[in-house]
Amino acid sequence: MNNIFPTELSEGWLIIYIDDIIICSDSWSLHLERLARVLHKVAEVNMKISLKKCNFGFEELKALGHVVSGLSLGIDKNKVAAVLLKPIPQNKKEMMSFLGFASYFRQNLKDFEIIAKSLYRICDQQTVFEMTQERIQAYEKIKKALTEASLLLIPDWNIPFQLYIDACGDGLGEALHQVQIIDDKPTEGPVCYISRQIQPKEARYGESQI
């Protein structure tokens, strides 16, 4: 469908994922204008739309495992509920499946790569799979983080960002923040979280050098 809406995609207000279309607007009048443009092109190419699957004019929607609004991006709790009810992984395949799922939401999870370090380690081919107490705690901590993850602010590219960095022996964690006006009050919050494990050559560095 990208070939049908090249202009709309380049303008940045249309999102297409497989056969789903999302239209984003700052005002109701602009939204109606953009909706008309999209529907006109849909009619031009004889594309069919299922009305029962459509939602029009919502301030918040669920898409790709997230809850998205004009102000924030959060995790859709319904998408993580089934995974959180599963027992502790019993083998590498189950652990890799869990880590892959959790990693999809890593921008919402503070220090994800650092917390998950011991869990990634037991997925190595040369490592025996053993859920030690430390690894169970890491697993439970990630599950808890998925249910309590902060809402991320939608970035405003016209105002400054603040970058907070924290280094430790296991890795590097970063939080990108902004102060935005919400309900007429300046509010600081995260835009995204970034983390990574330290490389072997970095293990000898001090925290200020990582």
From TrEMBL:
Residues 13-67 form the Reverse transcriptase domain. SUPFAM superfamilies: DNA/RNA polymerases (SSF56672). Residues 132-206 form the Reverse transcriptase/retrotransposon-derived protein RNase H-like domain. This is Reverse transcriptase domain-containing protein. It comes from Austropuccinia psidii MF-1.
